[in-house]
Amino acid sequence: MGKTLKSEYSAGSSWILYAASLYILTLVAQLANLLYLSSNQGHSFSEILIPSLLFLSLLTLPSLWVGFTLGRKLNLGIINQGTRAGEGTLFAIASGLLLGAALLGLRWLLLPYLPSELPEYGFRGPIGGLLVSLGAAVGEEVWFRFGLMTLLLYVCTKLSKKEQPPPQIAVIVILLVAFGFGLAHLPQLLSYDAGSTLAIYATILGNVAVGSLYGWCFWRYGLLSAIAAHFSLDVVLHVIPAC
Predict the structure, then answer these.
(1) Average pLDDT of every residue of the chain
(2) How far apart are the C-alpha atoms of 165 and 163, rounded to whole Å?
(3) For residues 176 and 138, is the Cβ–Cβ distance under 8 A?
(4) DSSP 36
């Protein structure tokens, strides 16, 4: 499967099929979580379905175009060119689990100093935690790594007048996107009315740490590796504490 995927992908003959599959997967993963939340909170899912589809499409479709068209020029993709199918998956899962456990322990140590309004890990329950883990792993990696990170790497490569981005540029882009990833989580924190100074710094730094892991997995192995790392880490934070 890996060789077939990479040969067809590098030839540019079937990227639209893979893009369509990722688009559908992203929508399903995100909407399943929204449906679960709506049913639990007694809200009408039908009222938010169309706006959600439009918003998700505006995020996902450009990200997929960037990932498949510009990413191919950088040897980046679902599975990076020159990488075997499944390579890096064990590392992604193991590192995601370990980093998730470390963040869980750190949250426990900081608990007395965090706002009481901040929900505990696992507050969504096992099913809700699993759905939010899946939605975040697929959607956020398509948007932040496959889309934004690929775009920045492509621009930096063009500016440096090189065929491939040098490692030092890749590191800077990984950290920059990870920082943006951290900032993107602040609105959720503020929605809980838990925006203390410590909580804000912890949210940004924690997401920079995990975003750097996801970015490195994408840079080294591809989108599937980044999704595997993200999902593994989120399961530790959102599912295990709820069990």
Answers:
(1) 92
(2) 7
(3) no
(4) H
**Burial group, residue 138, by CB count within 10 angstroms (0-12, 13-18, 19+):** buried
**For residue 118, is pLDDT > 70?**
yes
Nearest one of 155, 146, 215, 153 to 179, comparing CA atoms:
215
CA distance 173 to 150: 9
Residue burial 77-109, b: 16+ Cβ < 10 Å; e: rest: bbbbeebeeebbbebbbebbbebbeebbeebee
Per the structure block, which two tokens stand in for 61? 């479709």
Q: Using CA atoms in the order 160, 163, 164, 165, what is the torsion angle rounded to 10 degrees?
A: 10
- 235 or 160: which carries more pLDDT confidence? 235
Task: Report yes or no: 149 and 174 within 8 Å, Cβ to Cβ.
Answer: yes
**Residue matched to tokens 């934070």:** 237
Which amino acid appears at position 212 of this protein?
S
d(C-alpha 63, C-alpha 199), whole Å: 30
